[in-house]
From TrEMBL:
Subcellular location: Mitochondrion
Protein name (Swiss-Prot/TrEMBL): Ribosomal protein/NADH dehydrogenase domain-containing protein
Positions of the Ribosomal protein/NADH dehydrogenase domain: 40-120
Keywords: Mitochondrion, Ribonucleoprotein, Ribosomal protein
GO molecular function, one term: structural constituent of ribosome
Native source organism of the sequence: Zygotorulaspora mrakii (Zygosaccharomyces mrakii)
Pfam families registered for this protein in UniProt: L51_S25_CI-B8 (PF05047)
One cellular component term from this protein's GO annotations in UniProt: ribonucleoprotein complex
Amino acid sequence: MSSVKKQLEFLNKISYNTKKAQIFVNSEKVTGLKLLFQWQNHDGHMGARKFWHEYLPTLQYYNPALKIDLLRLKNDKRDVEVPCKIEILGRESKILDTINMQYKKDNEIMDDLLLKLDHEVVPQDQLVKV
């Protein structure tokens, strides 16, 4: 497969193929998202990592002003628990809501986020396909 074809497939994955994340977030209410989870995939953090890879690029593509902070902590101590959460931020970085991502699959995390965010689905005629 040529590199151009791979790039087109990657761009389409972000802009066209990841349907659940094709939303416009109400920027009057929500100004950012803050994700916190551990570097390693154990203890229920795999879904958070997959969510980050699968859904956040599309969410960022259709909401370029939405600030997304990602904090992945390296945890070498098995007895120390690292939170696995998304904080939905409003004006002045005020936390509007929190979603626990631990032991959830990536699509479940996206479903929870859609329930908490004030948003509208991107109309079909505004979707970008290359």
